């Protein structure tokens, strides 16, 4: 794919949390709500479930799935 600055990375072996976020408007309010939920997941849910946040690769996929 010419013209794209792509780079290969190695994703370390670990346990990853995968979340699907659904937003129809993609407004700043949605973004603020997402940040609040992320903080809640990191500070409440993860410790309650026995997980801890590590300094590791974070993978984000943005965009709509085909067929939506």
Termini separation (Å)? 25 Å
Query: For the CA atoms, what is the radius of gyration?
Result: 15 Å
Backbone shape: flat
**Helix-strand pattern, N to C?**
H
Give average pLDDT, whole number: 80
As residue ranges, the low-confidence spans are: none
Helix content: 25-40%
Largest sheet: none
The DSSP helix count reads 1
| Total beta strands | 0
- What structural class do helix, strand and pairing data support? mainly alpha
As a percent range, the share of strand residues is under 5%
Structural commentary:
With 68 residues, the protein is mostly helical. It is 31% helix and 0% strand. The chain is built from one helix and no strands. The chain is flat, with a radius of gyration of 15 Å. The chain starts with 27 loop residues before the first helix and ends in a 20-residue tail after the last helix. The mean pLDDT is 80.
What is this entry, summarized?
The chain is mainly alpha-helical and 68 residues long. The protein contains one helix and no strands.
Features:
68 residues, flat, mainly alpha
């Amino acid at each position: 794919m010419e013209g794209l600055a792509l780079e290969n990375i190695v994703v370390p072996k670990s346990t990853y949390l995968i979340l699907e976020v659904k937003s129809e408007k993609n407004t700043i309010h949605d973004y603020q709500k997402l940040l609040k939920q992320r903080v809640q997941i990191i500070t409440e849910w993860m410790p309650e479930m026995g997980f801890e946040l590590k300094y590791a690769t974070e993978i984000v996929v943005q965009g709509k799935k085909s067929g939506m």
